[in-house]
Write a structure and sequence with these properties.
- This protein has a 7-stranded parallel sheet with strand order 3-2-1-4-5-6-7, with helices on both faces.
- Strand 1, helix 1 and strand 2 form a beta-alpha-beta unit.
- The protein is an alpha/beta fold.
- Helix content is 37%, strand content 13%.
- It is globular and about 55 Å long.
Length: 289
């Protein structure tokens, strides 16, 4: 196995040796990338998601790179399913040191066009499911043994036009993070809020959004979209011992987009250097030539 066959993390080798934890939404995008990094650093990773085939492909990738992962198909919106899935992870791994609440999803629509069913589907995925996963990890293991939780939210500051259901759920997840950090201490609970990231999720939006997506970099003070590895690095930091005195916080990974003031043009001075340590990273098709 060569160096190029493994995740090139900026964190020291063996950082998560003897630890085990859960990554939801581990079958693609940010979850897949972060699962690879955690496994490369020594963690045993439980991959959770609704599609077993996608999870199995990631498990095979991680195993091929010398890491350890197991697959647990689960609909995080279903309370009893979440409870029994966390029980299985504990039975198989013997511990749960960390939880990455990454699973999520939304669709583009103006508020007036969102049905109650559509609203509830997004809120259950982006808020309720994360709460259920965190509660079960806490009550079944972390309350006694400690641990760390990171909730992936989104750049929902200043609202999320055409994705109001997701914005409301993500804002709720941030408030849940702050509350859990108090009620569950010394378990650490933090959030990461990605902005526009060049991830496979961009290919899930309808064709009519293609040109908008391709022009997003022009709206970012950093001059580009973020990489999956940059989000993964923020997550790994918050799960690591270096963040031992950080809880109830939200780390933005967004190139300063929320700091753009209305009516003020961006100065075009180039772009920040990108970090990409994910050996299997692939650019979203929508961003291709």
């Amino acid at each position: 196995m060569t160096h190029s066959d493994r995740y090139r993390s900026i964190f020291r080798a063996g950082l998560f040796d003897a630890q085990a934890g859960i990554v939801t939404g581990g079958g693609s995008g940010l979850g897949r990338c972060t699962a690879h990094e955690l496994a490369a650093l020594g963690a045993r990773v439980a991959l959770i998601g609704r599609r077993a085939d996608k999870l199995e492909r990631v498990r095979e990738e991680i195993a091929g790179a010398g890491g350890t992962a197991q697959v647990y198909p689960c609909d995080i919106r279903e309370e009893e399913t979440v409870r029994t899935t966390v029980e299985r992870v504990l039975r198989d791994f013997g511990r749960i040191d960390f939880l990455l609440n990454n699973a999520g999803g939304q669709f583009a629509a103006p508020l007036e066009g969102i049905s109650a069913k559509g609203w509830e589907a997004v809120v259950r995925t982006n808020l309720t499911g994360g709460f259920l996963m965190a509660r079960e990890c806490y009550t079944q293991c972390m309350r006694v043994h400690g641990g760390a939780i990171v909730n992936v939210i989104a750049d929902m500051w200043q609202g999320m036009p055409t994705m109001g259901h997701s914005g409301a759920a993500r804002a709720g997840m941030l408030n849940f993070t702050e509350t859990a950090a108090f009620e569950w201490a010394p378990v650490r609970v933090n959030a990461v809020a990605p902005g526009w990231i060049a991830s496979s999720g961009l290919d899930q939006y309808p064709a009519e959004m293609r040109e908008h997506i391709r022009g997003l970099h022009r709206l970012v003070p950093a001059g580009r979209l973020g990489t999956e590895s940059e989000v993964a690095a923020a997550i790994v930091f918050l799960l690591s011992p270096a963040a031992g005195f950080i809880s109830g916080s939200c780390l933005r990974v967004d190139g300063a987009v929320p700091n753009v003031k209305a009516g003020r043009a961006l100065a075009r001075r180039g772009q920040t250097a990108a970090f990409d340590g994910f050996h299997l990273a692939a650019a979203p098709k929508v961003l291709g030539d």
